[in-house]
Amino acid sequence: MENRINQFVQAEFDKTLANFNAMAADAGLREQIARAVAICVEALRAGRKILFCGNGGSAADAQHWAGELVSRFYYDRPGLPAIALTTDTSILTAIGNDYGYDYTFARQVEALGQAGDVLVAISTSGRSKNVLRALDVAEQKGIKVIGFTGASGGDMAGRCEVCFKVPSTETPRIQEGHEFIGHLLCALIESEIFPR
User: Fold this and answer.
1) Which residues are involved in binding Zn(2+) (predicted)?
2) pLDDT tens digits, residue range 18-33?
3) Which among 112, 134, 163, 184 could disulfide-bond with 105, CB atoms 3.0 to 4.6 Å apart, if both were Cys?
4) Residue 6 annotated as binding?
5) Has 169 been labeled as part of a binding site?
6) What is the pLDDT of residues 84-95, one digit of tens each?
């Protein structure tokens, strides 16, 4: 049993390292990160906010990154306006009950979003129906979208100002890539708005 566990752990390390090496070798990823940071910084400097949405592990990322901006990342500074649309169970269940699960994020973007805001939409497949409906509303309201997906980009690929397509088809590898890029965005937004 111990040998089987060791083999599994090594295989997971190998896949994760291969995924991160592919990301590190992609010069286009650096350009995308710079563009996404610029979009977020422009919105925040204009008094707008960043909205986050996703399902499951991506919901956890939405909450995590909103928390990094509202609280702090590397150092103390004033809070930045960010909202995870994944956290209010009364709102989520009311929308799910009244309109259906596909509208859980769209309705919140409709209610809370303003032109000039940014929506960070996270879906490993790029095909989550409730995330895609949120994109519909964002487009109607003049809200820029930064997407996080897997290798194909799914239906989100052509609908985002920036779409981070982590080069994997395995959900855990995609989520690991998302977490890394999300941390980069939080760190860079923080340092751009509040340079030390």
Assistant:
1) 64, 68, 175, 183
2) 999 999 999 999 999 9
3) 134
4) no
5) no
6) 999 999 999 999
Question: Is residue 177 a part of any domain in this protein?
Answer: yes
In the predicted model, what is the mean pLDDT of residues 35-63? Answer: 98
Burial class (CB in 10 A: 0-12, 13-18, 19+), 182: buried
Cβ neighbours of residue 137 closer than 8 Å, sequence gap 6 or more: 106, 109, 110, 113, 143
Nearest to 152 by CA among 134, 143, 164: 164
Q: pLDDT tens across 66-106, in order? A: 999 999 999 999 999 999 999 999 999 999 999 999 999 99
Alpha helices in the chain (DSSP H): 2-24, 27-45, 57-70, 89-98, 106-112, 129-141, 171-193
Residue 8, domain member (yes or no):
no
Whether 70 is covered by a domain: the verdict is yes
**What's the total number of domains in the chain?**
1
Closest CA to 184 of 48, 47, 19, 31: 31
**Any domain includes 80:** yes
* 136 labeled part of a ligand binding site: no
Is 56 annotated in a binding site? The answer is yes
Residue tagged 């992609």 (tokens)? 26
Q: Which residues contact 46 (CB under 8 A, 6 or more apart)?
A: 116
Annotated binding residue at 64?
yes
Q: Is 190 annotated as a binding residue?
A: no
Structure tokens that stand for 102 in this block:
């596909």
